[in-house]
Amino acid sequence: MENDLRAALIAWLRVDPALAALNAIEEEAPLSATPPWLGIAASAATEWGSKDRPGREIRVALELQSRTDQTAADAALIGAIERRVLDLPPFHAGFELASIRFLRSRSEARADNLRGALLEYRFRLFEPL
């Protein structure tokens, strides 16, 4: 289910017009894209289900990398990413989404005028019926 979620999340983010300013939205950090780009920094799954339905709790960390020296320059883009992630539809071929919860974020200045933002979410999934 973890790989199904990762693929569905990337596909969902790619078709959002509010994220058109991103040069790439990839499952991992893109090899040759210039900032701004968005990728999955990490994911991890644990068992989560019920007596009659297997499930997983999957934590996904998304990384936004941009080029700016302004601390608030990415605020609108981060807000658009957050809204889109939380609007992921519940039914997919490999899983049924039970809940999504924002967990934490981190923002930092990096070398060469780059900024990084990390957004972590918890997804609880059931196997489809």
Topology of this structure?
Layout: H1 2-14, E1 24-26, E2 37-47, E3 55-67, H2 75-86, E4 96-110, E5 114-126
Parallel strand pairs: 1-2
Antiparallel strand pairs: 2-3, 3-5, 4-5
- Structural class call reads alpha+beta
Q: Class in CATH?
A: Alpha Beta
Helix percent reads 10-25%
Helix-strand pattern: HEEEHEE
- Specify the biggest β-sheet: 5 strands, mixed
For the biggest β-sheet, the strand order reads 1-2-3-5-4
Give me the CATH architecture, please.
2-Layer Sandwich
Structure write-up:
It is a single chain. This protein is α+β, with helices and mostly antiparallel strands and 129 residues long. It has one domain: STM4215-like (2-Layer Sandwich), CATH 3.30.2000. The protein is 19% helix and 43% strand. The chain is built from two helices and five strands; from the N terminus they run H-E-E-E-H-E-E. A five-stranded mixed beta sheet has the order 1-2-3-5-4, covered by helices on one side. Strand 2 and strand 3 (55-67) form a beta hairpin.
